Amino acid sequence: MRKNRILALILTLVMVISLTACGSSKTSRIDPLMWIVKDGEGGCLYLMGTIHVGDERMETLPLEVTKTMDACDYLAVEFDILETENNTAGLLETMKSLMYTDGTTIKDHIDGEIYEDAKKIMEDSGIYNSAFDYYVPIMWQQFVSEAFMQKSDLKTEYGADRALIEYANDKNIEVLDIESMELQMDMLKSLSPETQEYLLGASVLTTEDMYNKSLNAMYESWVDGDREKLETLVAADSGLTESVMNDEAKAAMDEYNEKMLTIRNQNMALAAERYIDGGATVLLAVGTAHMFGDDGIISLLESKGYTVEEWQ
After folding, report:
1. Structure pTM?
2. C-beta of residue 173 within 8 angstroms of C-beta of residue 73
């Protein structure tokens, strides 16, 4: 059964969450990781790993972050989510591109048990709509995550990326898009049908409690600026536990990581180089998962001869 093929990976993630959660407690102070990148010739750039959810503690950005922002000419993000949210026509077109247009529905493309399990999760949270059946599996994976988020204390309205963009707008700091929502959706859509179904299957095996514990562990580690815990959680979330993965799981996670992390990390590192060469002062703030590992932004910049140091 397909569920058994990914159960080992889910159990590994549970163990990682349990280990990283030990001794963790909520703190009122937010101390996210930041870095300064230097080229040795006077050029520099600031890096910050973000997280796309948060709580009331993010209503006010830490002083260290605002001081850095105030010293910058630009804020570079994955894409300006505030501007995107106001572009209703663009949002609709992007969503349409993730629908079946050949007269079929998702039920024609995935295992029936996965479909029923995912549908029930969405129905239980009150978000299911019959129109969802026309969307591809990777969108259903997003819908399932949204269903789990309904009961979480963490909300996207408090996400670090949103807070940074709002601050930049208030201070008339220009926001630069490294990517776009359309690009990210195109990358998701380009995943093979097998990988999309695998990711959806993994989501329906992840209980609401497991999902929210994982999310909270990631957020609290981000709040504390705990690099070791963040790297452990990012690796687990990326499926980098090959010893418990069968060939199907490994193929799916390899494709996902290549398209959603490795390629994007390379483009983000190239953007960082352009900003440094351009002479302006930029804070480049993208998802924390893009910072770490051999293929992460930090390692990529160091391999090009840049000095990367933690910035307090």
Report:
1. 0.89
2. yes
